[in-house]
Amino acid sequence: MGRMTATATIPFVKMNGLGNEIVVVDLRASAKVFSADEAARIAADRTSRFDQLMVLHAPKTAGTQSYVRIYNADGSEAGACGNGMRCVGWWLAQALGKSAFKVETLAGVLDTSVRDMSSITVDMGEPRFNWQDIPTAEEFRDTRAIELQIGPIDNPTLHSPSVVNVGNPHAIFWVDDVEAYDLARLGPMLENHPIFPERANISLAHVTARDAITLRTWERGAGLTLACGSAACAAAVAGARKKLTDRKVTVTLPGGPLIIEWMDTNRILMTGPVAFEYEGVLDLAKLSRIPA
What we know:
By secondary structure, the chain is α+β, with helices and mostly antiparallel strands. The protein has 2 domains: 9-124 and 274-287, Diaminopimelate Epimerase, Chain A, domain 1 (Roll), CATH 3.10.310.10; 149-266, Diaminopimelate Epimerase, Chain A, domain 1 (Roll), CATH 3.10.310. Helix content is 17%, strand content 38%. The chain has helices spanning 36-44, 82-96, 183-191, 229-241, 284-287, and strands spanning 9-17, 20-26, 52-57, 66-72, 77-78, 100-105, 108-116, 119-123, 149-150, 158-159, 162-165, 169-174, 201-209, 212-219, 223-224, 248-253, 256-262, 268-272, 275-283. The strands form 2 sheets. It has a 17-stranded mixed sheet that branches. It has a two-stranded antiparallel sheet with strand order 9-10. The longest helix is centred in the first third of the chain and has 15 residues, at 82-96. The chain is globular, with a radius of gyration of 19 Å.
């Protein structure tokens, strides 16, 4: 994968991380950069549909093996995608014949370690808790619980989320039952709430034990997905900050479990599996005729 042909076709690999649909494109040998419109058209095509598109480019920083651009299904760029980074890790392990390497995203340089398809660990970097870094539109001195609610003032449907940036902005609402809410309806309202100037990933989290969280997420720019790795990281660190959980937890998403550890060094390690689905080819001429 990687070199564009004269007919403007580009190979891709379709994978998933716990059901989170991922398309990996290797452009390390090409100067091609997808526009937001092209990414949205790729997502709209049945054969290349994705929640996140992971595009490998030539490295920008010495000591890294690739710079990775991450696109959501609406064509917007993301700073992080945990499930997608595990898919990238598996792809690079096959391409480079290595089990450990560094890749760079908008969120920074991330260490990746591949044991096999069932166990890939990504260092997701350091969480950011300052309101300007998330960001929120107004100051909150304590981002463990901010003043935000939807529904009646005296009986809100959801309220007081924890907010954190793990490559992307995240808001985590602590609930007793993640299935008791219509996240498909509430998610877009909260994602686009004026308090989040860059939009946000919206999660419902239920702490079931000191080392266990159940999670559902509405992803910024992608909608309801079976799994969101950065949301799992966000819920884990937010739970530990609120002293609801320990610093190492199993986060169970609709697609399955991830192991998240918030290290004493302030780095977040995420470990989980990936699955290969199929290979395909993007035909840029054909894609140009698909409504984004």
